[in-house]
User: Fold this.
Amino acid sequence: DFKKLGTNKIETNTYEVTEKFNNISINSESTDVIFMPSDNKECKVVCTEEANAKHSVKVENNTLVIELENKKEWYENIGIHVGDLEMTVYLPKSEYGDLTIEVTTGDINIPEVFKFNSIDMNLTTGDVECFASGKEFLKTKVSTGDIVVKNINTKSPLLTGTIFKKSSRVLFNIASFICSFVYCFFNILYLKLLLF
Assistant:
């Protein structure tokens, strides 16, 4: 069991949200972010997180604000960090206002049951699967990773990364096409060099 080798302590915490809100803002470092519909029409956030780097969950100005409160000393970042960090947001409604997600490392998964007025996601390393719709605005930026989107109904979506557009079971992978083309080109060039 590799988890026993880890120097970080992982725990699961549940944060109940009783106040009403329309917008959602998430700011964290290394965690997967998953959205799920709530079974009991109540909102809660379940975080598998480090004991000394927990999240705060509160409602401010009609916005559900989820932020990482990193209380680690600098030397606590040195060691073997084992375990999957995950944040699951259970939402009672299907339609919300503005969604903003800022994560350094991790994956983001939003099912198509949800609708937002705008979606703005910024991810350094990880994959994004966004099947929810953004009525007015959709912006997704990933430095290293893939973006899979569906239900794009905004006029000018801003997508930065390796983009997959999933619609009617058609999957477009621009990066793979370019890589295949380059691979074939160099193979042909190599064969010509051998022949001549």
About this structure: Helices lie at 174-195.
